[in-house]
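## tool: complex_structure
## caller: assistant
## args:
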Amino acid sequence: MLRKTDYLTKRYGQPNGWKLAAYERDGGYEQAKRALGMTREALLEEMKAANIRGRGGAGFAMGVKWSFMPWPPKPERPHYLVINADEGEPGTFKDRTLMEQDPHSTVEGCIIGCFGIGAHAAYIYVRDELHLAKERLNGAIAEAKAKGYLGKRPFGRDWPVEVYVHTGAGAYICGEETALLNSLEGKRGEPRLKPPFPAQVGAFGMPSTVNNLETIAAVPTALKLGGEAFSKLSDLHALKDGGCRLFGVSGHVKRPGIYEACVGLTLRDLIFDLGGGVTHGELYFVVPGGSSCPVLRADEVVNAPNETSPIHPWHGKSVLDVPMGVDTFRALGTMLGTCCAIVLSDKACPVLAMHNLMRFYKHESCGQCTPCREGSAWLDRIMTRIVQGEGTLEELDRLHEIADSIMGNTICAFGEGTAMPALGFLRKFRKEFEAYVKTRGKSSTGLLAP
Amino acid sequence: MTPFAPTEEREKQIQEIVARYPNRQAALIPVLHVCQDQNGWISKEIVEWVATRLELSAAHVLGVVTFYTLFNQSPPGKHQVWICRTLSCALRGSDALIRHCEKRLGVHAGETTKDGKVTLRTAECLASCGTAPMMQVDREYHENLTIAEVDRILDRITS
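## result:
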């Protein structure tokens, strides 16, 4: 159900809304001050009760992640908080709005996060292209520091906290948490094998927590409302998927953008109510949460006869009416991802859409694992041939085989992130792909941008 | 070859960067950015200088330089134009923008104009999907573009 909120976006578009004065007018930094006076146990309880599922794509429970950190911290093994703002998943542009328009919520979240995981330093890893975002974050850090909210004794409490902005240099893979850690350490952004997990061996070989930027920015709000009350904003509180979050919509909609609402919003709400409906024809399909999430067709119906399925209540209904949650979308065979949907009208060609995304994955594979490096390039080569009208029906099966052999055979989830959307397109548009190959593209509108 | 040396202001920036991390290696990517800001690209001299400054091997520094898209390994044009071509932008006409820029500048994406003024490149998703199509000119984002707007921007940087 659509219920808009403005906890995270209240200051968006306000004159100087990104400044400390605006943030403090709305009660900013009161929660950081309060948190530093709490016990770690009490803070963690609140955070677990808030059911903040990671906003970066994997949807892991943030409070639980914090609790994985070794306790108490050993002086010779300092802890680090690392914030992932390497936003680069196609279709995703939410963290950028927070950094540019409300950077203080992130800084306050970092103070609370550092205390919660036993760290004294937080590194915010921002992709280099986002110059305004970096400028605003650095400005917010300087303002907070001047007020004594950061530094040796934040709010007069004996818990030193420093927050730093670290820049990447153009590599999608650095959004993968272990690649990000390597990049932060001044190395090539190649993912690490897990285990050990970052909570044991993270940044600089020390225990670390990596949180998405929107996740950490939601922390002050969750603490202010109280963990349980925050979680209950959501329609999916019972599934431990709580609170409100940012929803993005782009592509063929009248009002693309970032909207804040309670968890439980449906794709129909997002596309038609918030996004203003579809441009250039009828809704055809949606990439629901960043390009790694398998597509959903507008004509798909939920098939969940099993009563234990989280989506059983929507059995027989349109996929567009299922609340957007981590577990509900997993049950649909796709993912919620970053919660930023790409919408395509029936004037757009699914073959060209898949080709566009396969080109992306070929470009961004780090090259460390053979199945991904070779597989992503091979998928792109075949797609290019198909688009040029030179593909064969056998090659459609070859695409399946290649994607299958990437799955599960790589160090990080980039492999699945390439193979799953590929398989999604191939399975759900088999008829369209076959027609495209047989008619050498004449069956297609031949368009992405009508 | 003349060894690289950062300006006084940039040396100060580098010292501030190094102080943020528990070891010197972690400063590598930000320090490379500072050097590239001064020189326009990462020359062999910069690789040597950074390696010495941060106590790393030149091979490690070069490995990092070649991994990341934003480090130029040859001198780019005076202005760098990146046009995003990934799905959300493609759905709103980025292919037409790329074709227009190629035609107008007389280069293919990836090339620099003969007068050295503009390097035209395509980019993969720049987190501007809600304001597509878009292009980045040097440090600045230009969003919700039309061909007319692109022409105005190109007029400015090529005049």
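## assistant note: Chain B touches chain A through 48 residues (CB under 8 Å). Strands of chain B lie at 79-84, 118-123, 135-137, 140-142. Handing back to user.
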